[in-house]
């Protein structure tokens, strides 16, 4: 199966700081998405970003499909941004959705 | 839009009993639903993919007789953990893919299972 590596695995930020999270895929994937898992376990869709760049408020994401990686930018971080961030994508058959290893973010006041 | 619900949100049961978890797409039709398992501080592991009206496809290492999946309608899939044991304790999450043009997956809030 496809291996999805995220970095860094853990990140502690001071409120107001910016950060970049990275997601590397071992093979081509389709339908790449970024999620935020809150402390209660709910996965929240952040971006559907198979290629290119999108922005939503303080968050933006860029996927370079030809090089099999995606980046999530968080600017002016807030304590509510804390949680685990996952990237995930489909295999070429579309029948399996592979999750990354996750980045655990803690934003301190 | 695109809301997925799960029920129950948490369950505690005795070893040897069976537990059924429901996953519903509330405002869209889902031809495909996925079931995941997540252990503390780990990523989500895909257990099986269910398509409406057909048998589920299980990932390698997942016992199909242990984790029964039924996708009887375009809005409902169920996961039954049969003869649960303490090692089955985990956080189970379902997701659904819109039957329309969207390929985005939407996730339920998860079910925490504790087997005593």
Radius of gyration of chain B, in Å, reads 13 Å
Nearest-integer average pLDDT of chain A = 93
Mean of all residue-level pLDDT scores of chain B: 91
Main β sheet profile of chain B: 7 strands, mixed
Strand content of chain A: over 45%
Keywords:
heterodimer, A: 109 residues, mainly beta, five-stranded antiparallel sheet, 0% helix, 59% strand, B: 116 residues, seven-stranded mixed sheet, four-stranded antiparallel sheet
Description:
The complex is a heterodimer of chains A (109) and B (116). Chain A is an all-beta fold and 109 residues long. Chain A contains no helices and 11 strands. Chain A has strands spanning 4-7, 10-14, 19-25, 30-37, 43-48, 52-56, 59-64, 69-74, 83-90, 97-99, 103-108. In chain A, the strands form 2 sheets. In chain A, strands 2, 4, 5, 9, 10 and 11 form a 6-stranded mixed β-sheet that branches. Chain A has a 5-stranded antiparallel β-sheet with strand order 1-3-8-7-6, with no helix packed on it. Chain A is globular. Chain B is an all-beta fold and 116 residues long. Chain B is 0% helix and 55% strand. Chain B has strands spanning 4-7, 10-13, 19-25, 30-38, 44-51, 57-58, 67-73, 76-81, 90-98, 105-107, 111-115. In chain B, the strands form 2 sheets. In chain B, strands 2, 4, 5, 6, 9, 10 and 11 form a 7-stranded mixed β-sheet that branches. Chain B has a 4-stranded antiparallel β-sheet with strand order 1-3-8-7, with no helix packed on it. Chain B is globular and about 40 Å long. The model of chain B has no long low-confidence stretch (mean pLDDT 91). Classes of the chains: A mainly beta (109), B mainly beta (116).
Which helices and strands, and how do they pair?
The complex is a heterodimer of chains A (109) and B (116).
Chain A (H helix, E strand, L loop, with lengths): L3 E4 L2 E5 L4 E7 L4 E8 L5 E6 L3 E5 L2 E6 L4 E6 L8 E8 L6 E3 L3 E6 L1
Parallel strand pairs in A: 2-11
Antiparallel strand pairs in A: 1-3, 3-8, 4-5, 4-9, 6-7, 7-8, 9-10, 9-11
Chain B lengths: L3 E4 L2 E4 L5 E7 L4 E9 L5 E8 L5 E2 L8 E7 L2 E6 L8 E9 L6 E3 L3 E5 L1
């Amino acid at each position: 199966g496809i291996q999805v590596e995220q970095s860094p695995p853990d990140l502690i930020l001071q409120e107001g700081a910016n950060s970049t999270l990275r997601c590397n895929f071992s093979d081509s994937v389709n339908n790449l998405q970024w999620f935020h898992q809150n402390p209660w376990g709910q996965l929240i869709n952040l971006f559907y970003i198979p290629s290119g760049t999108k922005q939503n408020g303080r968050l933006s994401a860029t996927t370079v499909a030809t090089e099999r990686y995606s980046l999530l930018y968080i600017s002016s971080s807030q304590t509510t941004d804390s949680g685990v961030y996952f990237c995930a994508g489909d295999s070429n058959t579309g029948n399996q959705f592979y999750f990354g290893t996750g980045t655990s973010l803690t934003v301190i006041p | 839009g695109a809301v997925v619900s799960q029920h129950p949100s948490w369950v505690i049961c005795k070893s040897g009993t069976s537990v059924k978890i429901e996953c519903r797409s509330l405002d869209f039709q889902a031809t495909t639903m996925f079931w995941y398992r997540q252990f503390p501080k780990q990523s989500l592991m895909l257990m099986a993919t269910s398509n409406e009206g057909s048998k589920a496809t299980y990932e390698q290492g997942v016992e199909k007789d242990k984790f029964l999946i039924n996708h009887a309608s375009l809005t409902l899939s169920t996961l039954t953990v049969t003869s649960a044991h303490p090692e089955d304790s985990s956080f189970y999450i379902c997701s659904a893919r819109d039957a329309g043009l969207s390929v985005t997956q939407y996730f339920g809030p998860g079910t925490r299972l504790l087997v005593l």
